[in-house]
Amino acid sequence: MKLKMYARPNGTYGVRNRIAVIPTVACANHVAEQIAAAVENADAYCHPYGCDQLGRDLDLSFNCLKAMGTHPNNGAVLVLGLGCEEILPHDLYDAIKAEQPMTELLVMQEYGGSTASIERGIEICRAFEKELAKQERVDADLSNLTVGLECGGSDFSSGIASNPSLGEFTAKLCAAGGKAVFGETTELMGAEEILRGHAATPEVFDFIDQRIKAVEQVALDMHVDLRGTQPSPGNIEGGLSTIEEKSLGGVMKIGQEKIVDAIPFGAKATKPGVTYVDTPGNDLACSLGIACAGAQIIIFTTGRGTPMGFASSPVYKVTANAFIAGIMAENFDLDLSEIIEGDMTIRQGGEKLWKDILAVAEGKETVAERLGHREFSLYRVSPILT
């Protein structure tokens, strides 16, 4: 099956053709925001880091910013640096430029202050915009599509309607040779034996199992019992009683598919089929992890109503909670509450997802995009240094 997508120089294909304005440090955030606000097709990848980071933490931030610069949905990139940060602007520029030729660098301490840098950045991005307008979508095999599977603000409807429908979608995507990526390690606790059955190899399960144990140990070291303090108050109010119940519902996102690979945060999914990526349960951090894995689209199921989008990837919102679908109607692409009411099957829900996601891949805007939800942040793994 073919889709109309944007071909990239590094061999990937994008479902969008946007401009990424990537600050290397928090000090450059305001300038990045002002540049992106003046250019319709641009997004500012603002974050609170870039300094006071060492070792693996610094490497992770660098690699995630590089992954955003080379993300297939971005057709051009402006790397914006201050000039004295630990994420070196010239190094990030070189790393992105190697895969994305339409990349420019602007360093404030070399060019001028905020006003001059904003004016120059706008000039650069408007020139990008003219070039991107000349590009057209081309035929690309569906095997070039990677879709992120995520859930947040879960309730009773997530595990019995929304996520099983997503599982039906995942089966169709994998059968067509595409890739599906899921994470949320903290929300897999209690589903270990189910995951063992899904794992294509013992090594895949061992990696997942070790990551679950590692996250739980971090919490125990802080004198917190995750199995005793989860689900969250909102999850409980929504009808979930235990973390095991929440996790079993979350696993339904992958349906009956095998997990063919398991990768760390920041790595890219390379195998057709379902890949697990080790991400936190935090919605924004999870979105970053699965976008770094290559997801051009993220399907986000929620029972409580989570409006968040993501900078690099269109986020498609699904609920099966009729009350939330009514009160937050503008925030949802798909209402599957008819499944709960008995007027729609899970298979039909999966079919609706399939048709809509293919349309999104070829340009249909999601509601998060229309509302301007393009949130972004980095994920750090060490304490802030003083």
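The above is record 1. Record 2 follows with the same two-line structure.
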Amino acid sequence: MDILLINPASPRVDHITEHLGIASLKAYINSQGMKADTLDMAIENRTVGETVEYILSVNPLTVGVSMLDESRKNGFAVIKQLRERGYSGKIVVGGYFPTFASTEILRDFPEIDYVVRGEGEITLKELLQAVLGIEDRSLDQIEGLSYREKGEIRENPSRPLIGDLDILPPIDRKYARQVINSKQYLRIYGTRGCWGACSFCDIIGLYGSAKGKRWRRRSPEKLVNEMEELMSSYNTNYFIFNDDQFLIRGKNAFAVVDEFASELERRNLKIEFELMCRADTVSPKIMQRLKEVGLKRVFLGLESFDEKQLKRFNKKISVRQNIRALVTLHKLKIDVIASVILADAYTTFWDLLKQFAVLYIIRNRYFNSDFSKLSVNKKLEVYRGSAVYQEYKHKGLLTIDDYFTGCDYKLKFWTNFRLNMLTAEEELIRFLLRPGDVLAEIRQKFRLHMTTLRSKLA
């Protein structure tokens, strides 16, 4: 095996889902004549120790670890244990977290040989070709790569974004059957990137750090080809689009949607699907067209019902637009997951109470069914690749600023007090409504903790 790609995320109690990042890397590397496989710790329910044992048993020439902020600790634990156990192959890391901490990672973790920044498919292909001796290419020629040379850390120029997504093969579906068997839905992507400029989002930082269009889409033909194949292979007709921003604004917005819808109709494919978008892309005409071909639910990134907070987030959307989007979806009987962030460093207690009042009205007036939900993030997360990170750092608002442990800041006293109360209220209600589920979750977390502890002691 030329490379084994790892998702080091911890198992989830509520659901399992495919990691489209490593699945895309595997498919592309295999399409280029090399041999790649994936190991998803979350889906396979593997501990760090079990993952290390498996890697050593198959002994790939290279190990690739894809890390998000929430999975980085597991990722580094796997890497350190691999080296302690004598693994001598090359180790490469990539993903959102390493992209914004490449220099620090190479400085602090001698176990790691390379960092792939940004979109990884082409960079990883060229790196493997160089390392495996398939092509005579020096490391300094590989865009998007960070590495060491004679004790010095080298940061090559960023690789331009992939302009034509159709050059990428359909992602590998190693875990699709497990997802289906657990009564979850397959995820698929029709676009990459986001054309927005939200200050809290590191997606903007990832795609904005390289040349090229920050938002690109697959051709309707290629996209629907993959959906048709999945319907046939896995006997499913329900899909969740994993796109950060499925829709666009402007005069071409409807044409883009209509191309996709028309391709589904041309093939007479009866599907149902969910997507993610911003409030300013929700129009009756567009949503009606998508509903005609199976749209069932929209994940709507509203973020706030406080005008001041929306401006701080650089959403370039008003509260009125947010409410108008909810009304449109309600009238069309399309379910919604309304995503909001309750507080940032500037949120006052009264700002918080106003948000609570609006959310109460929304939940009781604009939700069509039990499939409509509020997705509430109590506190704004600060990621190093975001504009908010730069702002909070410049203004001295960060109480923790560490690439490894993450970033944090203080909320205003009464805001923090009320959010802590909210957390306690939620846990109490959850226990009263479903005590069995809560106790089962506690037992599972305890078992995972004990298994991890025993592997460390061993």
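The chain is about 45% helix and 20% strand.
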